[in-house]
Amino acid sequence: MCAIPRLFLFNSVSIPLMLVIIHSPAQLQEIINQNRKKNRTIGFVPTMGALHEGHLSLVRKCARETQLCIVSVFVNPTQFNDPKDFEKYPVHTQSDVEKLLTTRADVLFMPSVDDMYPEGLQTEDTIDLGGLDQVMEGRFRPGHFQGVARIMKKLLLMTQPDKLYMGQKDYQQCAVVAHLLKIWKMKTKLVICPTKREKNGLAMSSRNERLSPETRAKAGVIKSALYYVKNNYHKLPVELILEKARLKIREAGFETEYLEIADARNLQPVDHSISKNQKLVCCVAVWADGVRLIDNVLID
Ligand code: AMP
To answer: How confident is the model at residue 124 (pLDDT cuts 50, 70, 90)?
Structure first.
């Protein structure tokens, strides 16, 4: 275990705070137990690292709203359906720690693969995801949400948080986790935080650093296409809107894997002729120079 002190300016008074960095689940358990005994509220922000402002916005909110803010950094191998994507996933431990030191996070949990999967990576077990893993991301990334569910089960059992902070950027993942909390009858409250964007509107993502500067600049088109759908949904025929949005993306030189409007609660396809009072979400996955980017927008 290692604790890094830093000074935090609060109401003009410098308060020394610690960021405790731990690797083993046993150490995490000890910290959780100590804090539970003191009746402290526990907040948890699971991440795969290569932290950016999107992640940090979750951490800051968690630290404001709970008394023990735990952040995990773990690149979960079982949620990568493409081994090359896993190999290329950025790892920036040093800068992750530096960035967390600018927040009021209390604990950074960085387990190894063996710590999280002592039983090995293969499993025959499947977790019931209520059909949420059959659509959109689930259709193009088979097994992805099973991997997400498997790691979330372990992390949630370890942390038993009062509040769990996740980003709307991964809308379908939030829906899957909300479903898991429900079927496991957990009291944890899921707090979904708004998507942080780069100046041109591109949703912040650890994968953005794999884009060339030119591609990154053009990738703002993804948000424009989503907002084109949102702003025209009640005005034009849906198929026409979706076609135009896909065209915008294609004209920027990118390939749309899917661009769909779904029911915002269960993510199932909607019958647009009767969807007037339904809460909807438009989700997109785009390939930009070999990098897969996702984003979404809610439609009122
Ligand atoms: P990841 O490290 O990509 O697994 O993301 C960890 C958490 O940060 C997830 O709950 C994501 O939805 C959230 N997150 C990632 N990017 C953003 C963003 N641009 N804005 C807000 N939250 C984000």
So the answer is: confident
Residue 12 reports pLDDT greater than 60: no
pLDDT confidence of residue 295:
98
Tell me which amino acid residue 96 is.
D
Q: In angstroms, what is the span from residue 108 Cα to ligand 1's centroid?
A: 16
Closest CA to 64 of 105, 36, 21: 105
Nearest CA to ligand 1 atom 8: 55
The top-level CATH class assigned to 2-193 is alpha beta
Which class in CATH covers the domain with range 206-299? alpha beta
54 lines ligand 1 (CB under 6 A): yes
When pLDDT is cut at 50, 70 and 90, the band that residue 10 belongs to is very low
Distance, CA of 278 to CA of 233 (rounded, Å): 12
Q: Which residue minimizes the CA distance to atom 12 of ligand 1?
A: 167
Q: Is the pLDDT of residue 69 over 80?
A: yes
The Cα–Cα gap between 186 and 42 comes to 14
User: How many A from CA of 159 to the centre of ligand 1?
Assistant: 19
Residue 71, exposed/middle/buried by CB under 10 A (0-12, 13-18, 19+)?
buried
Domain ranges of the chain: 2-193, 206-299
